[in-house]
Design goal:
The complex is a heterodimer. By secondary structure, chain A is α/β, with parallel strands linked by helices. Chain A has 3 domains: 53 residues, no CATH class; 261 residues, Aspartate Aminotransferase, domain 2 (3-Layer(aba) Sandwich); 100 residues, Aspartate Aminotransferase, domain 1. Helices cover 36% and strands 13% of the residues of chain A. Chain B has 3 domains: 37 residues, no CATH class; 256 residues, Type I PLP-dependent aspartate aminotransferase-like (Major domain) (Aspartate Aminotransferase, domain 2, 3-Layer(aba) Sandwich); 113 residues, Aspartate Aminotransferase, domain 1 (Alpha-Beta Complex), CATH 3.90.1150. Chain B has 15 helices and 12 strands. The two termini of chain B are 31 Å apart. The chains are: A alpha/beta, B alpha/beta. Chains A and B meet through helix 1, helix 2, helix 3, helix 4 and helix 5 of A and helix 1, helix 2, helix 3, helix 4 and helix 5 of B. Chain B: Its cofactor is pyridoxal 5'-phosphate. Chain B: It is an enzyme of class 1 (oxidoreductase). Chain B: InterPro entries: GcvPB (IPR023012), GDC-P_C (IPR049316), GDC-P_N (IPR049315), GDC_P (IPR020581), PyrdxlP-dep_Trfase (IPR015424), PyrdxlP-dep_Trfase_major (IPR015421), PyrdxlP-dep_Trfase_small (IPR015422). Chain B: The glycine cleavage system is composed of four proteins: P, T, L and H. In this organism, the P 'protein' is a heterodimer of two subunits.
């Protein structure tokens, strides 16, 4: 099965026009010694019906959050997606278009991105947002690259709180591997970054400090205090936020943050086994930041008739013009995910976002109280949290996810793989989708997951 | 198409108190004596998002969608972007809850179906490239480039060859290549092209040395030409102890015809959204898997999907790995579409894709050559570059003017002003999913356009919702977000002026 249109007769007519006897002749530039002389070893072609059966079978081999109440978090959350998000994002005029290089043929996409940029500014309290990055992990890396440029401390130090998602930290480490700066992780044994500990680590070499709030353990950090401390040494404060939490919490920009980064998955994007997601990046509206902003930007202007319209702008920052001097190599981004986030935030509006955040907060705290009642379970940290929290369990936690799934839940993220000292801990996330009945049932299920007897 | 209401911004439609989405009542008992959220963290008000009803919202975004050209509505011969038809079945399959509703941290036993799919895709991509070790993690072609260069850096560090600081890049390369090389900590060195549009072997030879780490080559190259001397080039690089990286943006031309591994590449990335029909999404998501030779496999990002008997799992234990490029496992939703495409076409279908893409490109090339100069001798691969240089000289009509006028005829413009080595370039890639009739219509339209009044062309397009936006103004006084009227714009002056001679460079995106 293929998607070709030209009939054998049409192909013959085209070859005749070219004056060549066969398609084979068109590949003369491919030297014989590098030609593949056999068919590719791939499975044979399937019809739509045949492949539909196979793909459905593969899908059914997975246990999904559509069947099981999902209490997993760690950077991906089972928030409700209103139907309008899918309806709009499945308009093929959006999803089968490309980067809006020709403004006249792309006003739909360009205006959507301009609105997305505005929504991100409204959400974060910062002045500029780009047209999206891949996801939060590489978003953090891009933010740090910006900060190195803004401070001019290219060979300086980047400080990252241990409470920042360990995979974001790892992606950052990969991106910085061959650059002159150094990377230091700031321990946070109590589940948050103590401003005094940060103070002790700061120096005039500090280019950037990365914090996350709510952090990987679910806790709120003292972002305003941390940002003030970073500024005193001339560094850049980068904060990772949860967009849903901003229905209730103070915005990064209002806390003095210079660059705010987020995983936008919670804004109407399916869990999708980790991607495609949406890297949100917003920063101060200052030339030094704007010059180094990675990725695409859409700006407002007027056309030759004086009509308001939108174009890709400030492209001199970008790789296709700056080449090796570009601020980033980002080219393809997550435009369709930015559309989903825009529709989601518009559908919710300020009240909807506030109510969603309030439900997450209330239900998570209810869940924490209920689950900490289960024999042996207790909250690991005593810190304010939003929708995610960490429990200590009497014994190893590796088998818990499977045990809970057998009882009908996707729940419990064991933390030992990232934090050996937390091998007896797991985290849970509670979104607005979870009901009291599901939370109560999870508590019952957990009570039945007998911890292995202690040696 | 010209619904005036669609030009209003969603913020201008906002009416305080209007709502779209409502939340259920809270069903858990009230807060414990301690408040759930201490006051100091709480914002006084939620963010000032727009307040609209569902009808407002739907009309707004649906009307906006009609102000786009797309594959489903128009011929889109945007060179180097491979804008081919996106099968509808893929959208249905990607939306199955057994894929769309999987949490990335589910236990492996509960995701055997998706892990098997990803494992098989790794195998397919390894076979198609002749480079057996594959990471699906990079989220886009440019991230694939960076991944491969970080792998090269780790490999040379491991070999004690940290003096290899240079990455060679042809002058016709995509801009992402030099940007990725710099980000990976290398110095970039440009290699010239010959007048025939191929790598200048003399120039390459002069730049080879013990300090070279990688040669990044696009083959077929961005002029749509296959580098005939590819074996010589890769042999030279290997003799110099360096690695060869293939920018896989143009894989659509060589599926089942030749394999980068067989012509000497050590690493390559794929653009799943180009070659294997992930829809481009108005700029993404894409997906940029990387395939490498076995000796580079230990450096791939973690995790890699591995099979043990009938079970699949994510292998994180790879001590030499460069680390992670993506928080989770890459753009799985796009990978899934690529998998389905390969399964639908099979080995013969994939080869036919390349054959038909090349036939279409050559046919269109021959037809366009009747109208515009095509500076490099044929045959071409799946795309070609025409030049409007003569038209500029004789009538002061630029490549951009032709591009804009094509929009009036319901044809998306080709890529213009890329590659940089061709003046007034129009880079045209019809893809295999277009018919002879569509190609004829394009060629006929172009022939008609070049005869038109130059003033009329310079004012084109004439029928689109807007025409010739003032890009200089957009740069000089950047307005990057909407603000309520009365609010003073705090946007700063331009960071840099646009290049004066180049009206607009439209790049070939990886």
């Amino acid at each position: 099965m293929s998607y070709l249109l030209n009939t054998a007769e049409e192909q013959q007519a085209m070859l005749a026009y070219l004056g060549v006897p066969s398609v084979e002749e068109l590949f003369v530039a491919v030297p014989p010694e590098v030609r593949l002389r056999r068919p590719l070893h791939l499975p044979p072609a399937l019809t739509e019906l045949e492949l539909h059966r196979q793909v459905e079978e593969l899908a059914q081999q997975n246990a999904s959050a559509a069947q099981y109440p999902c209490f997993l978090g760690g950077g991906a959350y089972d928030h409700f997606i209103p139907a309008v998000v899918d309806a709009i994002a499945s308009r093929s005029e959006y999803y089968t278009a490309y980067t809006p290089y020709q403004a006249e043929a792309s006003q739909g996409t360009l205006q959507v991105i301009f609105e997305y940029q505005t929504l991100m500014c409204q959400l974060t309290g910062l002045g500029v947002a780009n047209a999206s990055l891949y996801e939060a992990g590489s978003g953090v890396a891009e933010a740090v690259l910006m900060a190195l440029g803004v401070t001019g401390r290219q060979d300086g130090e980047v400080l990252v709180a241990e409470t920042v998602h360990p995979e974001y930290r790892r992606v950052l480490g990969t991106y910085l591997a061959n650059l002159p700066c150094s990377l230091r992780v700031l321990p946070a044994p109590e589940g948050f970054l103590d401003p005094d500990d940060l103070q002790a680590a700061l120096s005039d070499r500090t280019a950037a400090v990365v914090v996350q709030s709510p952090n990987f353990f679910g806790h709120l950090e003292e972002v305003a205090d941390l940002a003030a401390a970073v500024h005193r040494v001339g560094g850049v404060c980068i904060a990772v936020f949860d967009p849903i939490s901003l229905g209730l919490l103070r915005r990064p920009g209002d806390c003095g943050v210079d660059i705010a980064v987020a995983e936008g998955q919670g804004l109407g994007i399916p869990l999708g086994y980790g991607g495609p997601y949406l890297g949100i990046l917003a920063c101060r509206d200052e030339p030094a930041y704007l010059r180094r902003l990675p990725g695409r930007l859409v700006g407002q202007t007027t056309d030759r008739h004086g009509q308001r319209c939108w174009v890709l702008t400030l492209q001199t920052r970008e790789q296709h013009i700056r080449r090796e001097k570009a601020t980033s190599n980002i080219c393809t981004n997550q435009g369709l995910m930015a559309l989903r986030a825009s529709v989601y935030l518009t559908a919710l509006g300020p009240q909807g976002l506030r109510e969603t955040a309030e439900l997450c907060l209330r239900k998570a705290h209810y869940a924490a109280r209920r689950l900490a009642d289960v024999a042996g379970a207790e909250l690991r940290f005593r810190r304010p949290f939003f929708k995610e929290f960490t429990l200590r369990w009497p014994g190893p936690t590796d088998a818990l996810p499977q045990q809970l799934r057998q009882r009908g839940f996707l729940a419990a993220l064991p933390l030992g793989r990232w934090f050996p000292s937390l091998a007896d801990c797991f985290s849970l996330a509670v979104t607005e989708k979870r009901t009291r009945a599901e939370i109560d049932a999870l508590a019952d299920a957990l009570a039945h997951c007998r911890p292995p007897s202690r040696p | 198409m010209n619904n005036v209401a669609a030009t209003e911004l969603i913020f201008e439609l906002s009416q305080p108190g209007r709502r779209c989405h409502r939340l259920p009542a809270c069903d858990v008992p009230p807060e414990s004596p301690e408040p759930d959220l201490p006051e100091r963290y709480r914002a006084a008000a939620p963010p000032p998002l727009p307040e609209v009803g569902e009808v407002d919202l739907v009309r707004h975004y649906v009307n906006l969608s009609t102000r786009n050209m797309s594959i489903d509505t128009h011929f889109y011969p945007l060179g180097s972007c491979t804008m081919k038809y996106n099968p509808k079945r893929h959208e249905r399959w990607a939306a199955l809850s057994g894929f769309a509703a999987l949490h990335p941290y589910q236990d492996e036993e509960s995701v055997q179906g998706i892990l098997r799919l990803l494992y098989e895709l790794q195998e397919f991509l390894g076979e198609i490239s002749g480079l057996p070790a594959v990471s699906l993690q990079p989220a886009a072609g440019a991230q694939g480039e960076l991944t491969a260069l970080l792998i090269a850096a780790a490999y040379f560090r491991d070999q004690g060859q940290t003096h290899r600081r240079k990455v060679l890049i042809p002058d016709s390369a995509h801009g992402t290549n030099p940007a990725s090389a710099t980000l990976a900590g290398f110095e970039t060195v440009t290699v010239k092209s010959t007048p025939q549009g191929l790598v200048d072997l003399t120039d390459l030879r002069s730049k080879l040395g013990p300090d070279v780490a990688v040669f990044m080559i696009t083959n077929p190259n961005t002029l749509g030409l296959f580098e005939r001397q590819i074996r010589t080039i890769t042999d030279w690089l290997h003799e110099a102890g360096a690695l060869v990286y293939l920018d896989g943006a143009n894989m659509n031309a060589i599926l089942g015809i030749t394999r980068p591994g067989d012509f000497g590449a050590d690493m390559q990335h794929y653009n799943v959204h180009k070659t294997f029909t992930g829809p481009h999404g108005g700029g993404g998501p894409g997906s940029g898997p990387v395939a490498v030779r076995d000796f580079l496999a230990p450096y791939l990002p973690v995790p890699v999907v591995v099979r043990e008997g009938e079970r699949y799992r994510l292998d994180y234990h790879r001590p030499k790995s460069i680390g992670k490029m993506h928080t989770f496992y890459g753009n799985v939703g796009i990978l899934l579409r690529g998998y389905c495409y390969i399964r639908t076409l099979g080995p013969d279908g994939l080869k036919q894709v390349s054959e038909q893409a090349v036939l279409n490109a050559n046919y269109l090339r021959a037809r366009v050559a009747q109208v515009l100069e095509v500076p490099h001798p044929g045959p071409c691969m799946h795309e070609f570059v025409a030049s409007a240089r003569k038209l500029l000289r004789e009538k002061k009509v630029r490549a951009m003017d032709l591009a804009k006028r094509l929009l009036d005829f319901g044809i998306h413009a080709p890529t213009v002003y890329f590659p940089l080595v061709v003046p007034e370039a129009l880079m045209i890639e019809p893809t295999e999913t277009e018919s002879k009739a569509t190609l004829d219509a394009f060629a006929d339209t172009l022939a008609r356009i070049v005869q038109e009044d130059p003033d009329f062309l310079r004012a084109a397009p004439h029928t689109t919702p807007i025409s010739r936006p003032d890009e200089v103004q957009a740069v000089k006084q950047p307005i990057l977000r909407w603000q309520p009227s009365g609010a003073s714009s705090s946007s700063p002056p331009a960071p840099a002026a646009p290049a004066a001679e180049t009206p607009q460079v439209v790049p070939a995106a990886s």
